[in-house]
């Protein structure tokens, strides 16, 4: 069976902090609601609605989520770079004849815009899945490895029976990711191709 590797998006393949911060600042200005955008971008990973709940009453969250997602292409996509090693990590999977899929909590149309703009060539993209929910897509696509930066990604990999590769480029350091149960912890994606060679040698 061909190798399939899943990747998270925010803070794994892309540094979405500048664009997300800009979008929250615009939403704050438009609504008159004070949003600490600098704080919000330290908590990336969970679904958008969880962050909005810090700033808006429950009844307004669906409306604000829709508005945020509508603003996102204009304010977030242009200012979001790829993480160091992102393209090379995907290429390393393809070089082994494998498939690289992206499984993310982000709204899928906006995730697609990121991948297209940055030229990150994923074989499949599945959005709006968080933590253990990601296991559904990982199992469906036969992923045996899942790469992410958040303890929610570690949990998703475990639920799918996939090997969790955690990169310490998001809100958690290497010690926290190890404690959460990650099978492998890397400083960042630049180390992933070398790790994948060793994984292939022992699989």
Strand order of the largest sheet: 3-2-1-4-5-6
Largest β-sheet summary = 6 strands, parallel
Helix-strand makeup class: alpha/beta
Taking all Cα atoms into account, the compactness measure Rg is: 17 Å
First-to-last CA distance: 12 Å
Helix count from the secondary structure assignment: 10
Strand content: 5-15%
DSSP strand tally: 6
N-to-C SSE string, H for helix and E for strand: EHHHHHEHEHEHEHEH
Helical content (DSSP H or I, runs of 4+) = 40-55%
Structure description:
With 203 residues, this protein is α/β, with parallel strands linked by helices. Helix 1 (17-31) crosses helix 4 (61-75). The chain has a 6-stranded parallel β-sheet with strand order 3-2-1-4-5-6, with helices on both faces. The mean pLDDT is 96. It has helices at residues 17-31, 37-40, 48-52, 61-75, 86-95, 108-118, 134-140, 151-160, 174-179, 192-202, and strands spanning 4-7, 99-103, 124-126, 145-148, 163-167, 184-186.
């Amino acid at each position: 069976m061909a190798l399939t590797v899943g990747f998270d998006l925010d803070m794994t393949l892309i540094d979405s902090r500048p664009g997300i911060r800009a979008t929250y600042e615009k939403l704050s200005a438009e609504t008159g609601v004070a949003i600490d955008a600098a704080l919000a971008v330290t908590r990336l990973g969970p679904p958008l609605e969880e962050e909005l709940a810090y700033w808006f009453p429950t009844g307004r969250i669906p409306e604000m989520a829709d508005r945020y997602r509508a603003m996102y292409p204009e304010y977030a996509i242009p200012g979001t770079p790829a993480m160091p090693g992102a393209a090379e990590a995907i290429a390393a999977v393809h070089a082994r004849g494998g498939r690289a899929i992206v499984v993310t909590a982000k709204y899928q149309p906006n995730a697609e815009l990121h991948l297209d703009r940055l030229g990150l060539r994923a074989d499949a993209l599945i959005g709006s899945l968080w933590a253990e929910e990601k296991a559904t897509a990982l199992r469906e696509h036969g992923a045996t490895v899942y790469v992410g930066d958040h303890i929610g990604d570690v949990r998703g990999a475990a639920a799918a029976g996939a090997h969790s590769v955690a990169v310490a480029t998001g809100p958690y350091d290497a010690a926290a990711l190890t404690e959460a149960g990650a099978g492998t912890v890397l400083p960042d994606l630049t180390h992933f191709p070398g790790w994948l060679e060793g994984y292939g040698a022992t699989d």
